[in-house]
Design goal:
InterPro entries: DUF2147. This protein is mainly beta. The chain is built from one helix and eight strands; from the N terminus they run H-E-E-E-E-E-E-E-E. The relative contact order is 0.17.
């Protein structure tokens, strides 16, 4: 009986350690060209998940700004631009938030989920039934 309780306790301790997090840095990959575009840092604040661009990988673009954005983001530097906002965890999915596409300045509903590979993140922006999916890759330090 002690052996069974020990095994159950061990499993309960080890399982949370294996749970993967979406938090950290991710290399964004353009879904049309397959090229790496930027590094986004995903972080948690007050129980919600957010993401901001911390690096643009195309060195030809100097001081990129969000020229097509509206409101407070209009002509704001893309570096440190918050592009993911207000995601909530629902099981293994983060949803009910938004994602900004700096290329066109549009804001979409957002859903994020880790793939079976914990270093691959499925990022989906959508309007109603129309969506676009990208797969981002974890940046290893």
């Amino acid at each position: 009986m002690k052996k069974v309780l020990f095994i159950i306790l061990l499993v309960l301790i080890v399982l949370p350690l294996n749970a993967q997090s979406i938090l950290g840095q991710w290399k964004t990959i353009d879904d049309e060209t397959g090229e790496a575009k930027s590094i986004v840092e995903i972080f948690e604040k007050e129980g919600k998940v957010y993401g901001k661009i911390i690096k643009v990988l195309n060195t030809k673009i100097k001081n990129p700004v969000c020229s097509k954005c509206k409101g407070e983001n209009k002509n704001k530097s893309i570096i440190n631009l918050q592009i993911i906002a207000d995601l909530s965890k629902n099981g293994d999915v983060y949803e009910d938030g938004t994602i900004l596409n700096p290329s066109n300045g549009k804001i979409y509903k957002c859903r994020i989920k880790l793939e079976d590979n914990p270093d691959r993140l499925q990022v989906r922006g959508y309007i109603a039934f129309f969506y676009k999916t990208q797969y981002w890759h974890r940046v290893k330090k």
